[in-house]
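Review box. Two proteins, two foldings.
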Amino acid sequence: MTRPGTARTVPQRKQILVVDDAEVIRTYLKNLLPMKGYDVLVAEDGIKAMALLNGGARPDVVVLDVMMPGIDGIETLGKIKQLMPEVPVIMLSVVGKAGTVVDAMNLGAADYINKPFEEEELEIALKKVLEVESLKGEREDLRDRLRAHEAHERASFLWASEKMTRIRDILEQVSDADVTILIHGESGVGKEVVARTTHEFSTRRDQRFVKVNCAALPEELLESELFGYERGAFTGASSRKAGKFEVASGGTMFLDEIAEMSPKLQAKLLQVLQDGEFSRLGGDVDVRVDVRVLAATNRNLEEMVRQGTFREDLYYRLNVVNVYVPPLRERKEEIPVLVEHFLAMYSAKYGRQRNPISDRLMRGFLSYRWPGNVRELENMVKRIVVLQSEDAIADEIFGAPGPSTALEPVARASAPAAAPEDDANAVSLRDIGRRAARDAEREALRRVLSQTNWNRKKAARILEVSYKTLLQKIKECGLGE
């Protein structure tokens, strides 16, 4: 059943942007392509093409001439790929310009056609690139599920510290309430994992989780991305397009870097939170949506409210539940567990031998300040796995030049300090990591079993393991009712 205020999905004509300084080519394609079922937008040079794209035009394919006065096709291609890397570009090249074609393909062109070209050549090229884009679209849900699965896998290792366990407790407490949650903390601490875990705990878990990075697009593009647009809303808007809020209706919308949203869009978001409705760009019809909003930032929104750069009423609407994710340097007991997890994950992913981290490097990990937090740790372990050498990151850990990345005394770390390596009775930090991983697994298993009143079949479904594996894990962890 279609929700009030929303339209049924109908097949939309694909839009082609033709960029060519030759008027005869523009006129020819402007007449030909509509007969083939396409909408057409034309520009006579790169400057006008970029003006259209910066103004909100969102073509499905760009057909771009290589040889143009002013900004040539290669430079225009680079600008298009910088603004809209996902849009396929077909280059029109004259015979004998092989080097130019190679440059275009290296910059990300999807295909090229030599001038003069036959009608069938262009039609085949368009169909080919659109079929590729169609396959990408069909895989979107699968990618979402894979990302959710990876986040779930990582999340099971992210709750190894007392501080993170308290956050998980809060998420469980509000799992059945559709309240907004404001997640804040430094970059790389795991805010998206917290958001995805919130979604997985909620009654909306079977619906879509849609993420939008508010810092990744300029204001005009972000508005059309979030709220969609009506036909004729701007030059090139030849058909209605649903925004991310409509796509996420019934599920969860995660707005990352919310502090970067402009005042104009803040007002529009406030309307969604207050009334559950908005109007598309260029439209005057209210569109109703049923969506839960989660937001994240690494900035101080309270200070931005005092400075007048962030709306106070929006801040209070978003901040119903406030979750602060502490930096990794304040939860170092997670480091051995995370290292073991990333070693296993990337060794399997890249088909590399899984070598244990040396005690010396683990001591360095426990002393390091981690300015990039969990994301930095993950990238370092990935490099070790791919290059099969700890030397790849040794300089960063042991030769860190600045105060923000300097080593701290090991005694300040949350995990037990290790004795010198030459001490025959030294405690192996690898053993500490393995014990921490086992303890985290046991605690996660105990919590799920308790949550399901020891319904083992239900617990197996939640943990996404077989019933037989669950029974074996219960036995290994020494758990009993």
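Next protein.
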Amino acid sequence: MKFYESKLSGLCRKFESGLFIRTVLIGLFLHSAYLRAQDPKESSLRLLDSNRFEEVVSANRNLCEKTCGNPETKELVSQMEGTNSAVFCNRLGVAYMGMQDFKRAIAAFKNAIFCDDSSKHHSNLALAYTYDKDHTSAEIHYKKAMDLSSRNPDDSLPKINYSIMLIKKKEYSNSESILRETVTNKDHLFYAELFLGYTLYQQKKFTEALSHYDRGIGLNPNYADLYVYRAYAHFQLNQLTSAEMDLNQAETIRSEGVNPRIHQLRSLIQRRIQGNRR
């Protein structure tokens, strides 16, 4: 049993170093409140969703630099009707985040703020700073984002992003407190349930974590990562059949390629089953 637990602990350490957060990072950015509502044609959305980040950079870099990235055009940009020019820089920043080029992502989100000083752009910038390990700057922009979002009770994504930084700093109880406030927002609820389940899992509250994954799946049954992380909770509770069923469902939803997290957990399940038979 010690062997199994040490293997699982190793996987958890990998998640803490970034695998878990990157799993939901792009999905979080692609939420309607942050990108989709600003992109009616959804061309950039489709490219980002399929990890074609270089194409998004090519399509948006010049548009960002000519508008929000150019101080001489700021007054003109601020008066433009229709699509907010900040969306070009926001898309650019999201693409750079997907490429793990955090320095360029920071620059892009700063340009987005130059055109549109909004909670979503400060929150995105803070998240980029978090991944660049500049927690001081991240804290500044998280607070700014949450201050701006306080005017709109439906905008809870800054709090979810802030919880990501706390998770990366292993401040699970603080992250849990923020996420418990966030789960009252229906639009972003399944993201909050996912992160809340993770913070509880890291505190070894496996049964409670399981209940939040259940709620998240009830809200969005087509989000594969909810099944993957629920499978880990099932595994910890020795509910191996349920864990295997969740992994199968995750593979059905996201059929492209081999997911290493699924493969690793499935191997652990098989070893535990063999150990139980001895």
